[in-house]
Amino acid sequence: MGEEKKAPSRRDYLKTVGAGIVGLAVGAAIGYGAAPKAAPGAVTTVTKTETKTVTAPGAPAEGRKVSIYTYFEAYEQEGYIPLLVDMTGLDISIWAESTGTVMARLISEKASPVADIVWGLSDWALETLKEENVITKPDTPLANYDKIDPKLTDPEGVWVGLGYWTAPMGVFHKDRAKTKGLTMPKSYWDLTDPKWKGEIIMPNPKTSGTATMFLTGIMILFGEDKGWEFFDKLVPNCAQITPSGSAPGKLAQAGECVLGLTFDYQTVKSKEAGYPVEIWVPEE
What we know:
CATH class of the largest domain: Alpha Beta
Number of domains: 2
C-alpha cells in the first residue's frame, strides 16, 4: 500500500500567497513573430486611434495583434490601453477574468502560449507563474527599468509592479442597512456577529486575487490562529462567495446585501456612480 496523502494544511496554503502588489508581467510568448491565435471567451479588441502621438522605437508593423490576459475590468483598462495603442501602433486583444481563472488558463496554455502580456495580477500570482515558467524575463531589457521603485520590481526582472491595493474595504448599502436594522460596522470582528448573517458578500480566495490578499492580510494582522477563527465565523454570515473580487461591491451597490467586501477602487467607483452607498474602512 502506498503512503497516504495528507491534505495541505492551512499553513501550507498560506505559503502560496504573499503581500498584494498589482503587477504587470511579460508573458512567455512575448516576441514579434507571428500573431497569437485568437483567444476564445470574452475578448475585446482595441484598435489604433486615428492620431498616433508617439511611436515606440523598434515597434512591430501596424496591424500586429498583441494578446493581453488581465484581471482588470474595462473601466480599469481605460487609462492604459489607448495610450499603449498610440505609442506602439499595435492592435490589442484583451481577455479579462478573475486572477485564478487567468492563472489556470495561462498554465494550461504553457506548451502553446496565446498571451503576449500578463497584466494586472498580484505579485503572489506572478511569482507562482514565474515558478511554473509560464512568464519569463524579456529578451530585450525594459526601458527605464532602473528608475522604477525596487519595491515594485521582481529581482529577476520577470515582472514589474504598477502600484498597491487596499483590500478589503467594503461597499455599504445605506437603504438596505436601515431595513435590516444594521449600522456601519467598526471592525473586521463586527462582521462575525450573527446579526450579519446573509448580509455580507465576499470573494473566493481560490479564484480571486482580491480575496487572497484579504486572507493574507488578516493572517498578518491577527496571526494564523485568530485569523482562521475570524474566517470560521465570517463565512457563515456570507450570503454569497463570488469568483470575482469586484462582484461583491457591485452586488452591494445593487442592494443585494448590506456589505460587499471588495478592493478600494471598486468602493470609490460604486459611490461615485451615485448609488446609496458608503465606503466602509475597518478600524484595523
